């Protein structure tokens, strides 16, 4: 019998905050005589909040109390209690993620957002979620070409490239509606440092008004035209544009990007592209920034672009739709979990590649011990200093069929590796690609120390990569758990 679970998506961006409730249908897709396998087969949006201005206390702090009060009010409007939520994600995006008390905000949201809503941030993850929420991901399944989605908010333009449903690249630029803020008389209240660097390196090609001075509509229009032009040229993969835009890149500048066949535009600026263009400084500054004029110039640039450019049908809510409906995977055709251990949040992944099985049992055991020890040492060096328990999840890659005897040798190797004196953690979290988690868990019970065997978690049907982070929720039914894999993709 199918089961539905509630999923919440929360997007706290530079300019706006959105909240979304969706329902995910969990369906058993395996036959009655096969190992139980469940998939999410349907996603329905039940409630979408209004788009709120993100509450801030000055330039460098988030108004945490107001954010929490806003979300509590939205839960009440949706007729939902935080404890009714089984999965989802809080995405702190754009310049909001750089505020001084962003970590305080994520902790507060974790307390108010239900059992298994997770707080995450990062431009590459935001790009992926916006691309899935906008419809660009689905469009890439219908065409042979590359579909790029650029999500333009207040502080950043986050682009994700999809080919046949696969995310092949991401890139983020400091281009957004609130990078220049002004009052209705044209006095510039703020101009972002990235824009100042870009203007300084342009050799006079970009004019940026000075903070505290009054500017003209023509000056703002030329600036927005330059921003729209460099953005579309970069997203199109033009080498000269990538070089000219280096001061605008978030993170390491891209030297090459895929050439898209279609470009979708989402985010608050994308939602304004089909509105009437502003004609005065006062009309431009109706939201206190250049967002409406940037959208108008982007629409003009899109008409002249040789690549098809279109606003997303879900432009304003693309990221929050992706966060609420696309983050969850299902783990557990078989699984082993000690009681009381779940949920686990924000656990970094270390991959352990098991070597091909050797013909000699003793040699195979030696090779497995070396592989497990090397992976655990890597995890200790990278993550043990942060003090988490578990400090990392070990993602096991075992090619081909794993016989009972080899499973026992693998359990011996893992028990020896987890017995390292340098590993103070008491919770081994093992993730397998194939359906072997329950057997591996039972094999480990007699081999781990007492504290570790009472905190053991083994999951399967999952393939997180090195550098991913995972969250594991409480079991939904039988031996099925929701898992959020937070992946970052930086290039092809």
Topology:
Elements: E1 3-12, E2 16-28, E3 38-48, E4 52-53, H1 64-77, E5 85-92, H2 102-112, E6 118-121, H3 123-134, H4 136-142, E7 146-152, E8 157-163, E9 166-173, E10 180-182, E11 188-191, H5 193-201, H6 217-235, H7 239-244, E12 262-266, H8 267-272, H9 281-284, H10 291-304, E13 308-311, H11 318-325, E14 328-331, E15 336-337, E16 344-353, H12 361-383, E17 393-397, H13 404-418, E18 429-432, H14 437-445, H15 450-453, E19 457-459, E20 469-472, E21 481-486
Parallel strand pairs: 1-5, 5-6, 7-12, 12-13, 16-17, 17-18, 18-19
Antiparallel strand pairs: 1-2, 2-3, 2-4, 7-8, 8-9, 10-11, 14-21, 15-19, 16-20, 20-21
Oligomer: single chain
Per DSSP E runs of 2 or more residues, the count of β-strands stands at 21
- Mean pLDDT figure: 81
Q: Would you tell me which CATH topology of the largest domain applies?
A: Nucleotidyltransferase, domain 5
Please report which band the strand proportion falls in: under 5%, 5-15%, 15-25%, 25-35%, 35-45% or over 45%.
25-35%
Helical region count?
15
Order of strands, main sheet, comes to 14-21-20-16-17-18-19-15
Describe this structure in words.
This protein has 492 residues and is α/β, with parallel strands linked by helices. It has three domains: 3-121, ATPase, nucleotide binding domain (Nucleotidyltransferase, domain 5, 2-Layer Sandwich), CATH 3.30.420; 126-318, Nucleotidyltransferase, domain 5 (2-Layer Sandwich), CATH 3.30.420; 329-486. Helix content is 33%, strand content 25%. It has an eight-stranded mixed β-sheet with strand order 14-21-20-16-17-18-19-15. Strands 1, 2, 3, 4, 5 and 6 form a six-stranded mixed β-sheet that branches. The protein has a five-stranded mixed β-sheet with strand order 9-8-7-12-13. Strand 5, helix 2 and strand 6 form a beta-alpha-beta unit. Helix 3 packs across helix 11 (318-325) and helix 6 crosses helix 10. The longest helix has 23 residues, at 361-383. The model is unreliable at 318-328 and 488-492 (pLDDT under 50).
């Amino acid at each position: 019998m199918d089961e539905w679970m509630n999923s919440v998506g929360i997007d706290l961006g530079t300019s706006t905050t959105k909240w979304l409730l969706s329902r995910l249908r969990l369906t058993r897709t395996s036959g009655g005589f096969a190992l139980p396998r469940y998939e999410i087969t349907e996603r329905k949006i039940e409630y979408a909040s209004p788009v709120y201005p993100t509450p801030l206390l000055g330039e460098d702090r988030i108004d945490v109390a107001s954010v929490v009060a806003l979300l509590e009010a939205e839960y009440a409007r949706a007729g939902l209690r935080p404890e009714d939520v089984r999965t989802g994600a809080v995405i702190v995006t754009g310049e909001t993620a750089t505020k001084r008390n962003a970590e305080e905000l994520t902790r507060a949201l974790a307390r108010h957002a239900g059992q298994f809503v997770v707080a995450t941030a990062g431009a590459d993850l935001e790009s992926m979620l916006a691309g899935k929420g906008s419809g660009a991901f689905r469009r890439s399944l219908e065409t042979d070409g590359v579909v790029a989605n650029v999500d333009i908010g207040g502080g950043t333009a986050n682009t994700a490239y999809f080919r046949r449903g696969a995310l092949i690249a991401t890139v983020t630029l400091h281009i957004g509606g609130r990078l220049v803020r002004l009052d209705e008389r044209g006095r510039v209240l703020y101009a972002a440092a990235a824009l100042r660097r870009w203007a300084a390196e342009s050799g006079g090609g970009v004019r940026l008004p000075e903070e505290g001075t009054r500017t003209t509509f023509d000056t703002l229009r030329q600036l927005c035209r330059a921003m729209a032009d460099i953005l579309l040229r970069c997203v199109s993969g033009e080498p000269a544009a990538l070089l000219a835009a280096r001061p605008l890149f978030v993170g390491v500048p891209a030297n090459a990007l895929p050439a898209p066949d279609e470009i979708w535009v989402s985010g608050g600026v994308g939602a304004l592209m089909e509105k009437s263009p502003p004609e005065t400084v006062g009309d431009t500054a109706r939201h206190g920034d250049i967002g409406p004029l940037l959208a108008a110039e982007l629409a003009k640039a899109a008409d002249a672009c040789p690549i098809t450019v279109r606003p997303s049908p879900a432009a304003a809510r693309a990221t929050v739709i992706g966060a609420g409906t696309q983050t969850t995977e299902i783990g557990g055709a078989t699984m082993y979990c000690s009681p009381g251990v779940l949920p686990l949040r924000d656990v970094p992944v270390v991959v352990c590649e098991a070597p091909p099985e050797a013909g000699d049992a003793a040699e195979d055991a030696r090779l497995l011990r070396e592989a497990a020890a090397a992976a655990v040492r890597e995890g200790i060096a990278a993550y043990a200093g942060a003090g988490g328990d578990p400090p990392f999840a070990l993602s096991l890659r075992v090619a081909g069929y794993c016989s009972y005897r080899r499973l026992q040798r693998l359990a011996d190797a893992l028990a020896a590796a987890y017995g390292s004196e340098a590993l103070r953690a008491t919770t081994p979290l093992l993730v397998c690609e194939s359906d072997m988690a329950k057997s591996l868990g039972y094999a480990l019970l007699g081999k781990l120390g007492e504290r570790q065997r009472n905190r053991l978690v083994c999951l399967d049907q999952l393939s997180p990569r090195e550098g991913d982070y995972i969250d594991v929720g409480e079991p939904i039914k039988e031996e099925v758990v929701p898992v959020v894999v937070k992946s970052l993709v930086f290039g092809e």
